[in-house]
Design goal:
CATH architecture: 3-Layer(aba) Sandwich
Number of domains: 1
CATH class: Alpha Beta
Number of helices: 7
Strand order of the largest sheet: 3-2-4-1-5-6
Mean pLDDT: 92
Shape: globular
Number of strands: 6
Helix content: 25-40%
């Protein structure tokens, strides 16, 4: 079994925007929230999405523990296609977005990434983590890729996981492994929201 901590990147300079491949940097408050979440914690390894907001988050961790960061493109956020980088208020009346949240497999983002493609790359990344067999390992990623990982490990449909709040700087600890017949499995051990998320 492997203990994995999934950490969503800190808050960015671009708030209330549907960020997929849009490469926004962290804001000062985002850096501070990450620093508070990681205080007193250590990991055997750090893996991060290549997107700037995840890399900057991982670099805060690497500096405190003098660890290197392994960049894995399979942890990048969903490509939201035509919606990517647009303010959420501009998409509030788009029926396609509501359909995506209701059934993402059947309603992918227009000109974006299919959920089958997201599922395949995240499953591949999880297989690599499980093969390491050590831990705890920290994965710095995004709301979409973390939810997909939980969907795979817990056998929960992706659309049901919108009910789990994964605010920026949320830390989710999972124990995971592989079964010879059933493949990847996992269970959530702990969810730590940043204080500002709990107050929202």
């Amino acid at each position: 079994m492997t203990v994995v901590d999934f950490l969503r990147h800190g808050e960015t300079e671009t708030r209330d925007t549907l960020l997929g491949r849009t490469d926004a940097p962290l804001c000062a408050a985002g850096c501070e929230a990450v620093a508070r979440q990681i205080a007193g914690r250590t990991w055997g390894g750090i893996v991060a999405s290549p997107l700037k907001r995840a890399r900057e988050t991982a670099e805060i961790l690497a500096l405190t523990g003098e660890q290197s960061v392994e960049v894995d493109p399979d942890w990048r956020e969903i490509d939201f296609g035509d919606w990517d980088g647009r303010p959420r208020r501009d998409l509030a009346e788009d029926a396609r977005l509501a359909a995506f949240y209701k059934n993402p497999d059947a309603n992918p983002p227009p000109n974006g990434e299919s959920m089958d493609a997201v599922r395949a790359r995240v499953a591949s990344a999880l297989d690599r983590l499980a093969a390491k067999g050590d831990g705890p390992v920290l994965v710095v990623a995004h709301g979409g890729s973390i939810r997909m990982a939980l969907s795979i490990l817990l056998a929960i449909p992706l659309e049901r996981l919108w009910a789990v709040r994964i605010a920026c700087a949320t830390l989710i600890r999972v124990e995971m492994g592989t079964h010879p017949m059933h493949g990847l499995w996992g269970e959530i051990i702990e969810i730590t929201q940043p204080p500002e998320a709990r107050e929202a």
